[in-house]
Amino acid sequence: MNEKKAASQTPAPGSRRILFAGCLAHLTHDGLTDMLYVFFPVWQQLFSLNFSDVGLFKTLFSGSLAAFQMPAGALGNRFGLVRSLTAGTLLTCLALTAASFTRFVPLFAVLLIVGGMGSSAQHPLASAAVSRAFGGASSRNALSTYNFVGDLGKLAFPAMAALIIARTDWETAIRVMAAVGIASAVLVAAMLAGQAQAAPSLSSGQAATARLGFAMTKAFGALTAIGVLDSATRMGFLTFLPFVLKDKGADMSVIGLALALL
């Protein structure tokens, strides 16, 4: 029994490389998502948007990101984790790049939806890769590192985007950050090459759980509620914070710094 327990807590071969790749994917996607807060004041002026329109823009990206996470997990099982994660990252970066070339609001909105769909692949696939590579207490430590690095992306990408906007324009900023995302996708794919492409087989006792992909327990429900409240509060605050700062005379670099600190 002790030997089995120890074996289950032993990291898989190449686990450090998998953790690094998962962290890089998390940093990139969370960074690309949060950097959009910097662009909202620019887009409001460019497209003559009101605050409800800005909120809709945010909802289009974040809503598609949330809605497609479970389908993204299923695609990962069918087509492989590496392919699906790489394709999702590239899709997000290409959608953001394409958005920098259009002034047609409906097309811009569609590209935000497509970008969110691409970003939906990261959480279910990268976190699954990390959790499978580690076991027991090692898994908790690895996932803590994974989550922490994602927060670093939320810090770095908005600040970088704001600095580029302050020195050039928003189109250049979003293209540069998308290029960073593409480079990240290539690196993640290289590090995860050769990893298992399908989910491990399930026992008959796991069949009910497999239909949803998780066990519906009270603890899970409580954590889900906390996550919903946290995300709703944070997104609403950060979406409109740049406008408040701009009205108080803050320039783009200050707005980027404020978002990075939060």
Key structural traits:
262 residues, mainly alpha, Growth Hormone, Chain: A, 12 helices, 82% helix, 0% strand
State the major sheet: none
The tally of strands reads 0
| Helix count, DSSP H or I runs of 4 or more residues | 12
**What is the residue-averaged pLDDT?**
82
Number of domains: 1
Please state the structural category. mainly alpha
Q: Spans of 5+ residues with little confidence (pLDDT < 50)?
A: 1-8, 197-212
H/E element order: HHHHHHHHHHHH
CATH class: Mainly Alpha
Q: Give the overall shape.
A: globular
Question: CATH topology, which one?
Answer: Growth Hormone, Chain: A
Terminal residue distance:
46 Å
Q: Into which percent range does the helicity of residues fall?
A: over 70%
Helix and strand topology:
Layout: H1 2-8, H2 15-47, H3 51-67, H4 69-79, H5 81-99, H6 105-119, H7 122-133, H8 137-167, H9 170-192, H10 207-212, H11 218-247, H12 252-261
Helix pairs in contact: 2-3, 2-7, 2-8, 2-9, 2-11, 3-6, 3-11, 4-5, 4-7, 5-6, 5-7, 5-9, 7-8, 8-9, 8-12, 11-12
What does this structure look like?
By secondary structure, the chain is mostly helical. It has a single domain (13-193, 211-261), classed as Growth Hormone, Chain: A (Up-down Bundle). Helices cover 82% and strands 0% of the residues. It has helices spanning 2-8, 15-47, 51-67, 69-79, 81-99, 105-119, 122-133, 137-167, 170-192, 207-212, 218-247, 252-261. Helix 7 (122-133) runs antiparallel to helix 8 (137-167). The protein starts with a helix and ends with a helix.
